[in-house]
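Write out the 3D structure for:
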Amino acid sequence: MASFLPQHLPDIPLPDPTSTSSLRTIHDFFLSSFYTQEKCTQLLDSYVRPTRNWGKGWDGNSFCNHQEKHVVEWNRTPFQVLTALFLFGEELSEDICASVLSPSIFELLVSHKFLKRKYVSCYSSHQIFPVTVGSRTALILTDWPFLDESLPSQFAVMPVGYDSLELTVISEVNVSSSNAGECSSICDMCCGSGIQGIHYLLQLVSRNQNLSSVKCKFVDYNPRALSLCEFNVAFNGLSSASCSFVKSDCWSDVDASADSKFDVILCNPPFVAIPESEEERLHYYADGGVDGNNAIKEIFKEVLPRLKPLTGVMLMVTELPNVSTSTSQVRRFLASEEGKIKIAYVKEDVETIEEYSAVRNDEMGFKTDAKKYAKGINKSEDIGVIIDRALVLIRVENVNSDDDEGLFEFSSGQDEDVEYEFGADEPDAFIGDAGRSFLAEVMK
């Protein structure tokens, strides 16, 4: 993988993770104001009225896409003010914030850098996304889908997208499976904000496992990601677990000793396919090279030796080209006949290379036309000609392969021509009830 981060990041202040008491006060205030995934989903549902209501679940981008619909006149309860500031990215007057949230909470949010003052207004430099974990809610602080102009895009830490939420679903499947057992070691590779490791730790808490016996290693090449991750661990009250934060280009600086093998590796790597001429334009968290597989190959190459034998599991969300051949691709990346591979994808999410290029070209703001973009990603040395791409969920077990492995297709029944108001992303199929049930059956 290319290494192009400078030694010093721009000075973007992050909330102080060492102020445990204050962080707990702020966290409790969010939850007492009903800042939960369910409540926030209901709020966005009131703005988005698809002609077919087929699933519930929205990512961080969807809230920002509806910023203008979250009208200021509604900012009269703590829940409305918190969602305006930390989910939709609105700028509000200090008077509204102090009067609705209370002067003490408002000053706490400012002093701990959750909010910035701007003349007589205030705003948040970060999005805070609520994720349900059993009876608990994790609050995940990330960079915004739209960026502060003083933060170059390659330093940005990934907001909570549908890919992140899909990976939490199969991690729930893994924890709830009968053979999951006690977990003592977790690796969140390409951790970003730390959502996957934090989500997994909270699942263990919901199973009454004592976290003092659990080690969780968060790995990322971006130092800013590790800072955000460390904060999120503290913000969610998980300091009792033995967490470490490692700057590493994939596995290069991760301890490979025999006593450092993992029960679970969670991974949401950079996977966006992009022509070589445009690589410098992408956020670091998204750049996967011409075929999208740059980081994926490096991670899979060492994953089996990093897992505990017989019981170790890797769970990954990524894109793969030529989805019908994805199991053979992963087998080739593993460079071993060992390991059982399962891959699941949504039928309606498979895009031709032309469709994929048009979407990515537009969302990334490239100046090149979509046809030129497609020509730049339609073949690679490893794959050959590339005809389509899809988001997939991958499970690799460190056991001998058997007939139970394979490629599993889920049809959501979603009409691809449905139009969603105000630029919303479509709901994700694997986050809805039918998709969850499918994954529970085939990915355990």
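The CA atoms of residues 50 and 266 lie 33 Å apart.
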